[in-house]
Amino acid sequence: ALVMADLTVFQASRGETRTTPWSYPKLQVLRETENRILDPVAGYGGRTATISAPGNAEQIHVEVVTPDYFRVLELDMALGRAFGPSEDDPSDPPLVAVLSHEMWQTRFGADPGVLGRDATLNGRPVTIGGVAPAGFDGLTGGASAWVPVLASEALFNRFMVQGAQSHWMRAVGRLVPGASVEEASAQMEVVAAAVAAAYPADDPGREYSASARALSDVRVNGRAHSAVWLLTAAALLVLLVACANLSGLLLARGRRRNRDGAVRMAVGASRWRVIRGSLIESLLLALAGGILGILLATWGARALGLLWPREFLSSADHEIRAMSPESIAVDGTVLVFCALASVVAAVAIGLWPALRTSSVNLSATLKDGGSGLKSRRGGWDPRSILIAAQVGLALVLVVGTGLVGSSIARMLDADRGFGAENVLAFRYDLPATSALAEHPTDFHDELRERVLRLPSVESVTTGCPPLRGHCWGITRVDAIEGREAIPQGEGPLVGITLVGDSYFETLDVGLLSGRTLGPDDGLDGQPTGVINQRAASLLFPDEDPIGKRIQVGVSQEDKDPFVEIVGVVENVMYDTPDQEQYAELYYSYREFPDRSVWMLARTTSDPTAVVPLVRGELSQMAPDVAMAGVTTIEDIVDGSVGDRRVLFTLLVVFAALTLALSATGTWGVVANAVVERRRELGLRLALGAAHGGVVGLVLRAALGAAAAGIVLGTLVALGGSRVLSAFLYETSQSDPVAYALAAALLLAVVALAAWLPAKRATRVDPVEALRAE
After folding, report:
1. How many CA atoms lie within 13 A of 264 on its CB side?
2. What is the pLDDT of residues 705-720, one digit of tens each?
3. Strands 38-53 and 170-175
4. Pairing with 654, which of 125, 171, 251, 377 sits 20 to 30 Å away (CA)?
5. Three-state SS across 459-513?
6. How do residues 536-579 score in pLDDT, each as one tens digit?
C-alpha cells in the first residue's frame, strides 16, 4: 500500500501544529533509516521549467524526484528506463529527464529514437532517458517531465539540495509486506527525533514530529469532499421529489382501478398478488428511468469533468492531485449503484399505492364517487401529503441554491482594493544558467519599457497578481525600532510582496499617505517599503507609520535589517475574500532580484489583444524564455469564485428539476382530483356558485398542502444548512430573504400548476353532472 510520510511542526509559541514539506537534507534522514517500514520511499516536488528550442520556448510543469520515485509507484517506462542508483550520486549529478507520454507525443512526435537525445531545460542540455507510461502525469498532476533531485542544483537552485530549511518535498513510500500504516507512523516519530537532532530548529519553541497516512486518505480534498456530499444530497432530494411525483400519479391511477382490484380480490386473488402486480409496474417504470438516467449520466460525466473546478482537483496541503477530470466517468460501480437505486425507487414509488389499492372494501368502493384533496374522514388525502412532500423537498434545494448564489454575489462585490478592468498578467522565468539571470532586474526593466511602448498600453509593472496567494510568502515582524523587543516567533504575521515601479498605479490601488515605490528604491543599503492599511493599524495603531522602521524575517546580509516605511496603501486581497487577509509589506523588486516574475500591463481596451505583441517583444529579447500563465485580472477575479460558481450551476440545475417535478406533480394530482370531483363541482355551479369560487376552492386545497410543505421544508433546511457553511461568504445559513424568496417561488409554481386544472373545472356542464348524479 502507498503511504504518505508527513513531517509535522509544532510551534509552542503559537500553540499550533501544521504539516510541512520535507527539505532534501531532512528527507535523507528518512531515506537512511535502517529497517524502514516504508521501503522504498521517495521524495517529490513540483517546479516550473522552460523547455526550449530556438524560437520555440514553452513553460512546463516538472516534478523533481528522488531516484526511487517510479519504483515506489511501480511504474514501467513506455520507453527507456526510470531513474536508478546512478542518479543518486552527488559526486556526479546527472542531467537526465524522463518525459511524460503526452510530451513525448506532442513535442517529440512520438519518435522512438528520442532516447539519448538532449532537450534544453532551463537553458541546460538534459539527456532524455525514458518516457513514462501513457496516462501518468505525476502525483502533483500535469507533469510533463521528471528530473532527479540532484539535477535541481544545476537546473533550479542549490538550496533545493543543500538547504536544510528549504522545505519543498513531499515523501511517499510503500509499506513492506505485513506492515501497517500504524507501524509506519510509529517509526516516523523516531525519524522526527533524528531530524530534530541532525537539524536543530532556530526557534527553541519549535518541535518536529512525523506520521504516516494512507495515500488514499491524503488524496481527499476537503472542499471537494464537502462539495461531493452536498451534490449527493441535492441529487437525493431530486430523486425523492421524483419518487413522490410518480407515487402521486400511481396513487391517482390506483384510485381509478379500485373497483378492478376489489373485483379481483372478490373472485379469489390474494392481496399479495394485487400488490405484486402494482410493484412490477413501478419497477418497469423505475428501470426505464434508470436506463435513461445512465445515458444522460454518460454525457453529464464528460461535462462535469470539464466544469469541475481546478481547486477540487488537488490536495494543496500535500501537493498531490486528488483526482483527475478523466476519473469522472460511468463505470461498473456507478452502474450497480444505479440498478440498486432503481429498485429502491420502484419500491418507494409503488408500495404505498399498491397497499391502498389492495386494501379496498368492495361495497364502499362500488359506492365511492371519489374525493378531492381532502379525505371524507376529514384527514389529509394521501395526494395532498405527496404535494406537501414535493414542495418541502424542493424548498430545501431552492434555499441552498439561493444561499450559494447570494454568497457568490457578495464575494464578487467585496472590496478587493484594486481595479481589475483591462489588466493583462503573465509570468516568465529566466534560465538559472543564463547570463540574463545574473542581472534579472535589468532584463525586467527593459521588457517593461518595451511593453509600455506598445499600442493601447497605459502602465506596466512587475509584481504578484491579486487573489493568487502570496508569491513571496508570509513572515513575522521581528522588531519595531524604538519598541520593546518582540519574543522570538511571536511577532505579527505580514505578507511579503515584491513589486516594480507603478505597481499600485497599474492596479489602481489607492495611496493613503506617503509615497509609492519608484526606480530609486532598492538601490542602496537602506531597504524601503510600503505597508497596507491593515499593517498600519496592526503595527502603528496610534502613530503615523511614515518614517518608522521595522525588521521582518527576510533581509540581506549586506543591507540594513530594518526596512523604512515610506507609504501606506489600501488593503489589496491576495487571497480569496473568505480566507484570512494579512497585513502586507511591499518591497521594491530590486531589493531581492528574482529571475522569475509576474508582469502586469493595464491597457485602454481588451488586454488580450496585446498578447501577441508582448510575446514578440519577449522573444526578441530572449528566444529561449517562454511567456506563461497568460490571463487577465478580471479572469482571476472570476476564477476566485470558480468552485462556488460550478457548485451553484449544478444546484440551479437540480433546483430547476425539483421545481419542474413539483409543478407537474401538483398539476397531475389537482387535475385528477378535479376529474374525481366533477359531479360535486357541477352541482356547485348548478346551485349558483361563481366560477371564481370554484377555482378558489381547488386552489386553496393545493396551496394548503404547499404551505404545509413549506413549513416542513423550512425546518429541514434550517437543520441541514450547516453543510453549506464551507461555501458561504458573509451569508447567514438562516438568511430570511433566501427563505422568503424560496417560499414565494414555490407558492407561485404550485398556484400556477393548480390554476390550469382549476380553471378547467369551471367548464364542467352542470346538466351533465346532475344527470350523472
Report:
1. 17
2. 899 999 999 999 888 8
3. antiparallel
4. 251
5. EEEEECCCCCCCCCCEEEEEEECCCCCCCCCCCCEEEEEEECCCHHHHCCCCEEE
6. 999 999 899 999 999 987 766 667 889 999 999 999 988 777 77
**Assigned C-alpha cell, 16:** 499550533
**Phi and psi at residue 22, to the nearest 5°:** -85, 150
Residue pointed to by grid coordinates 419518487? 243
pLDDT at 56: 77
DSSP 567-635: EEE----SS-TTSPPPEEEEEETTTS--SEEEEEEEESS-GGGGHHHHHHHHHHH-TT---EEEEEHHH
Give the dihedral sign, CA 106/109/110/111: negative
- CB-based contacts of 198, cutoff 8 Å, min separation 6: 25, 26, 29
* Total Cβ atoms within 10 A of residue 137: 19
Alpha-carbon span 69 to 315, nearest angstrom: 19
- Measure the CA–CA gap between 255 and 257, rounded to whole angstroms: 5
Task: Tell which residue, 613, 634, 640, has the closest CA to residue 423.
Answer: 634
CB 596 within 8 A of CB 431: no
Residue 261's pLDDT band (cuts 50, 70, 90):
low
Cell numbers standing for residue 133 = 507510461
Q: What is the C-alpha to C-alpha distance for residues 519 and 500, in angstroms, rounded to an integer?
A: 8
Listed in order, strand segments (DSSP E) in 132-241 are: 145-148, 170-175, 206-214
Q: Are strands 562-569 and 528-532 parallel, antiparallel or unpaired?
A: parallel
For residues 523 and 46, give the distance between their C-alpha atoms in angstroms, rounded to a whole number: 33
Which helix (H) or strand (E) segment holds residue 337: the answer is helix 332-358
pLDDT digits (tens, 9 = 90+) for 482-530: 888 888 767 888 888 999 999 999 999 999 999 999 888 877 778 899 9
DSSP type of residue 368: -
What is the DSSP-derived secondary structure letter of residue 321?
E
Q: Are 436 and 447 in contact (CB under 8 A)?
A: no
Q: Provide, rounded to the nearest whole percent, the portion of the chain with pLDDT above 90.
A: 32
Question: Assign residue 569 a region: left if phi > 0, alpha if psi is -120 to 50, beta otherwise?
Answer: beta
Question: What is the C-alpha to C-alpha distance for residues 644 and 651, in angstroms, rounded to an integer?
Answer: 10
* DSSP bridge partners of 208: 9
DSSP 8-state secondary structure symbol assigned to residue 301: H
More confident residue, 358 or 670: 670
pTM: 0.75
Alpha helix (H) ranges present in 414-476?
Answer: 440-452
What is the spatial distance between Cα 452 and Cα 456, in angstroms, rounded to a whole number? 9
The answer to whether the CB of 477 falls within 8 A of the CB of 491 is yes
Grid look-up 492599511 returns 533
pLDDT at 495: 87
Residue of 123, 69, 62, 136 lying closest to 97 (CA atoms): 62
CB contact set of 390 (below 8 Å; sequence gap of 6+): 241, 244, 245, 248, 658, 661, 662, 665, 666, 709
Which amino acid, one-letter code, is at 382? P
- Contacts of 677 by beta carbon, 8 Å cutoff, 6+ apart: 370, 371, 372, 761
Q: Per DSSP, what are the bridge partners of residue 479? A: 551
CA nearest neighbour of 538 among 596, 593, 487, 581: 581
571: left (phi over 0), alpha (psi -120 to 50) or beta: beta
Question: What pLDDT digit, counting tens, does each position of 672-695 carry?
Answer: 777 666 666 666 666 666 666 777
Least confident of 75-79, 424-428, 662-666, 710-714: 662-666
Three-state secondary structure call for residue 660: helix
Omega before 545 within 30 of 0, i.e. cis: no
Q: Percent of the chain having pLDDT more than 70?
A: 82
Instruction: Give the strand pairing for 124-131 and 96-99.
Output: parallel
The helix (H) or strand (E) run that includes residue 117 is none
Q: Three-state SS string across 55-66, please?
A: CEEEEEEEEEEC
pLDDT over 70 (residue 322): no
Cell of 116: 539519448
**Helix and strand counts by DSSP (H, E) for the chain:** 23, 24
C-alpha cell of residue 516 = 509609492
